Structures are given as C-alpha cells and as structure tokens.
Amino acid sequence: MNFIDAVNKTFTLVDFERNQNFPMHSTFHLQRISEFLDQLSNPHLKIPAIHVAGTKGKGSVCSMISSVLSQSGYKVGLITSPHLHSVTERIRIGYSPIDQNDFIDLVNELWPKVENYNRTSCYGELTWFEFMIAASFYYFEKCDADFQVVETGLGGRLDATNVLLPKVSVITSISLDHTKILGETIEEIAFEKGGIIKSGIPVVLSPQTFYEATEVIKDIANKRNSKLVNVSDLFSVQNVCNFKEFQVFDVKTEHSNFQLELGLLGHHQIENSLTALGAINVLKKSGVEIPQNAIDQGFKNVRWSGRLEYLSTGQSGFELLVDGAHNVYSMECLVREIKNLKYKNLILIFGGFNSHDLEGMLKVLLELDPILIGVNSRHPKSVQASVIDSISENIKFRKRFFYDSVEEGFDYASNISVEGDLILATGSLSVVAEVIESQKEMLPELYQKF
C-alpha cells in the first residue's frame, strides 16, 4: 500500500469536513472516540497536553506554544486542522509532518482495530476526524513525545479532541462562525468553545472583541473551579515595529518588560502571541522548565503558512499575499492590515464555502477597492465561481472576473498585475493552499471520492 492508498483508505470513513451534508450538532458525542481510545489503552492520557479552542487564531497559538516548547528541548506532538497541502500536516512532531511511510504504517497498524470497532460499536462507525485524532495520540505515544499541543476541530464541548485532561486549556478569540452548527449568537458559540474547560484545570483566555464571550467563559470557569488567566489583565504591548516578514514589540507585565520578535504578521498575531505567553506562564508555574531564551527563539522562529503570508514572486514586480480569513470578523482584521500597506492596485482572488458568509466578507473587502477574481477551489464544499458572480453582482467592485479553478484565476491575476500591484488570495484556506501550490509549482494531493 502506498501513501495515497493509505490516505484513501482512511477516507472510506465518513468525513464531515469535506461532506456537503453536515449532521446536526445535537447528534455529536464523545462516547465513540472515548471507546476507541480505550481499546488503544488511552494514549491521549499519557502525554501532558495543551488544549486550544476558539474561533480565530487556534492554529497560530498552537504553533507558537509548540515552537517554544521545542526550543526548550522537548519533543512536541502537534495536532492542527485543516491541512493546506497534505493530511500529514495534521500529525506533527515539532513542525515536521509525519513521514509518509510512518503514516502508512500507522494506518496498517490501526485499521484492523478500526474495522473491529466499527463492527461492534453501539454508537456507529468512527468518523474520519475521530480516526485522525486517535491516530495522532497513538503516534505521539509511540514517538515518546514529552508534550502534545492539540487544536480542536469544531467548537470544543463535543469535539473529538475533548477527551483530553490537559495541563492547561486555552481559548482564543471568539466570533461568529459555523453558526448553523454551533449557534447563532456569541453566547452560544462561547458556550461550545468553553466546553473544553476542565474541573480544576487553568484556562487561558485571549483578548476578546465581544464582552459576552468573556462573560460566558468566566461563568464556566467559575462553575468548574478552573482558574481563569485573562490575557488582557496580564500583558500590554508597546512600540510595535512592523517588517515584511516579522514584527517586534515590547511586552509589559506587572513585574517586567521585555521585547519579542514574532515571525508572524498582523496585530491579531500579537494578541495570539500574548495568549501563547499566558499558556507558557501556566506551564512554568506548574514546574515545566522553559528558559527565557527558548521563549525568545520560539516566537522568533514560529511559522504558520497561509496566514498573512507573503510569497516570493521573483522579478515580477508585484507582491503576493495570502491569508485564510473565512468569516466576517477575520476579514475585518485582514482589511485593517491591508490598509497599512502601499500598493497601486489590489487584485483580489476570492473563493469560499457554502457555509461561509460570502456576501458579508465581500462587502468588507470592498473597502479596499479591489479588482475581484472569483474562483472555485477543489474542496468539495467550495462554491462555484458563478455563485460568487451572483453574490457580488450588487456589490460595486470596479471590475469582476470569474474562473472555475484557483490556478486559472491566479494565472489571470498574475498576467494583469504590474509593478507595485498587490495580489491578495483569501476567503478560505483551500484557496490559499491552491495559490501556494501554483506559485511554488507543488503537486497537489488529490483524494479519491467515496
């Protein structure tokens, strides 16, 4: 069995991430993943964990924490989703994705257990996401990882990762997203995210735009006797200096001041870095040795592809920027950052999913007066370019073009761009991934449809 065969075998399981038909959230539960992990001798409980939920910034915060722990000399398992180019990105040691041969071995070893469980389960068959989470925990134990940093997939309370008993829980910025599944108000969504808070285990809360989110998390933490570490009360930032590939700023606490160099761009990443710092402080107070130079190097070396990332365009003269913003709040943050840049014309490559507020995002992007190029990515949930055409018809973009693939849209954007122009690709991580693949001439990882 080769790598693609192994991947396609896993995709014979139900994959709600790529399936157009998503179940009602009320049907979610943790019994199935718990039972399967029990048959694997509960690997998830054998490695100290940091568990991260939220609407925005989860992956970035996970990457920062993992980077700092790795710089401290620890072997760190890292679980994030979705992936950009390969399913191996979801299971990492440090920043290194699981080797393809190791993934094949993992599938070969676990698949008989999957089939046996599915034959006897009282709760139905494992889903693809549940298998990937269980396989990650199992792999980390085999690798003798010292820590595991785990990002939730969707929500938190009923997410398959919520079988952990972490050393610290982390909740990043909360806003409206996946409203058909998690709820249509900030309070409902915050309740789902706050579901990862465990009795007696500290929870770090990032700066919140919505007061209601903070109040819901405070209430859950209080009821579960969980110490709430509110990042807004711990840190303040001064003297921000922005460069093309990094930013430098001063962090002020009650007892000290220090400077951080951060290898990610955008004000929201500064907030994410403070959230990661809050989690690191909790770990240090629990006895984990994390020297200051590891913190400095961890934030300096952090990378998280597809998030406000410049891509090399050689001698073309135009700039290329990609960002995976896919809801209105994230798009507002992105637009604020773009307004600080200098360029002649903005060429916008945009695509999204049926579940996204496409009209809301496009109205926010209109503030940049871009030339719109609507595209359809390969992702099964991606909307057709004709849908973007229909939605954007009454939004007064100065020019609109539409292509049935990201590659075609990117080629056209490159052809019409001149020196000083900025191409921005956004709307979904799948659009971002395909632009990166086109620019870097990467072969895409294509999956069989079941």
In words, what does this structure look like?
It is a single chain. The chain is an alpha/beta fold. The protein has two domains: 3-301, 3-Layer(aba) Sandwich (UDP-N-acetylmuramoyl-L-alanine:D-glutamate ligase), CATH 3.40.1190; 309-440, Alpha-Beta Complex (Protein-Tyrosine Phosphatase, Chain A). Helices cover 39% and strands 17% of the residues. The chain has 16 helices and 17 strands. The protein has helices at 3-10, 31-39, 58-71, 100-120, 128-142, 179-182, 186-193, 211-223, 231-234, 267-285, 292-301, 328-338, 358-365, 385-392, 406-416, 429-440, and strands at 49-53, 76-79, 91-93, 96-97, 147-151, 168-171, 203-205, 228-230, 236-242, 247-252, 257-262, 309-311, 319-322, 346-350, 371-375, 399-403, 422-426. It has an eight-stranded mixed β-sheet with strand order 4-3-2-5-1-6-7-8, sandwiched between helices. Helix 3 packs across helix 11 and helix 12 packs parallel to helix 13 (358-365).
Question: What's the gist of this structure?
Answer:
This protein is of the alpha/beta class and 450 residues long. The chain has helices at residues 3-10, 31-39, 58-71, 100-120, 128-142, 179-182, 186-193, 211-223, 231-234, 267-285, 292-301, 328-338, 358-365, 385-392, 406-416, 429-440; strands spanning 49-53, 76-79, 91-93, 96-97, 147-151, 168-171, 203-205, 228-230, 236-242, 247-252, 257-262, 309-311, 319-322, 346-350, 371-375, 399-403, 422-426. The protein has 16 helices and 17 strands.
